[in-house]
Fold:
Amino acid sequence: MLIVQKYGGTSVGDVKRIRNVAKRVVDCFKSGNEVVVVVSAMAGQTDRLISLAHEISEDPDPREMDALLATGEQTSAALLAMAIKAMGYSATSLVAFQARILTDDAHGRARISEIDTKRIRKELKQGKIVIVAGFQGINHEGNITTLGRGGSDTTAVALAAALKADLCEIYTDVEGVFTADPRICPEAKKIDAISYDEMLELASLGAKVLQIRSVEFAQKYNVPIHVRSSFNHKEGTMVVEADAEMEKIVVRAVAHDKNQARITVRGVVDRPGIAAQIFEPLGQAGIVVDMIIQNTSEDGITDMTFTVPKVDFKKAMQLAKEAADKIGAKKVLGDEHIGKVSIVGVGMRSHSGVAAKMFQTLAQAGINILMISTSEIKISCVIDEKDVERAVKELHKAFIESE
Ligand code: ADP
Ligand code: ASP
Ligand code: MG
Structure:
């Protein structure tokens, strides 16, 4: 079999853990498999590099930022290759230009456009274990790009798709995908199998166990993912196509996201084109607007409220203020202390009353809802940041423990 394994930051967090990973990789190789390993930077390293950059400059150059951040994964890839060689097996580490991972130009959030697998295949043919630095790519000019936080997951799944691997294993610091983040909800249970659709929603709603782009790739190219722990040998969670069994469960998991901020443009004259004038500059700046609410207008004046990722808050405020000035809106308010809780499940398509139960649960806990959004398979509420953990526990109790 050809197996792609990805090890996250905690799994390669220090020398002892890198040796542990080396042993697992070699075991897989010794069982007769071809093995391609994708690694993240050692735990905390990407954050350290980001804060170094911000000590030098308030608004670091995106090209240089990617050049800097990519070193985290280069380091762990080389260290893992050394550890495997020290065990007497042959291994090669490859960074993006060697592994030929090509992306677009969007520094900090690049998308993989193509992977030329010739080099990797050549190394595999020579009997080597191939270690690929995750999270990075190169654009058409040969500049280093990065794929956004958590991007090593996407490197792994994209490689699995390009190599037509039999399996993609994502090794992390939890035993799989749980019914809620196990770090804040001790009652959360491991899910044996989850559909691509549900996992996509969970990833986009803040469950950082898989980067959203990696799930998109997996679904598009039908790559089965096995999310599991690098610290034991228990079966984890399979991410696969939905089946009839999965539809029976109404709420599969609770997700939360504290990395959101809310912006309100007050006193907007309600006429055609207003929304476009507010949101166009945000889109051009690459800022992903999530929820949007426009109140019904009174006397032709309305408010527009929306959420953006916290990292983009400052920039989004500035752009919203510029737009507000242009369209003659009264003022722009911002709130960084919000969070989002969501419930997700493909079974919601065929069940009613789920939203009402969610709102009741939050009300009984005295938690105020600031914004609501729904899709076929999820309901999300924006609430105060300080209430997020309590909300997750209460929703988990109401929808998962009691079922
Ligand atoms: P890695 O460094 O291995 O990529 P991440 O920190 O990116 O790991 O992702 C794993 C983390 O995701 C877990 O430690 C856990 O706190 C968090 N997480 C959030 N929601 C979930 C969930 N529903 N199931 C499992 N883990 C979750
Ligand atoms: N090192 C990068 C990050 O911390 C990518 C990853 O870990 O997947 O976001
Ligand atoms: Mg991750």
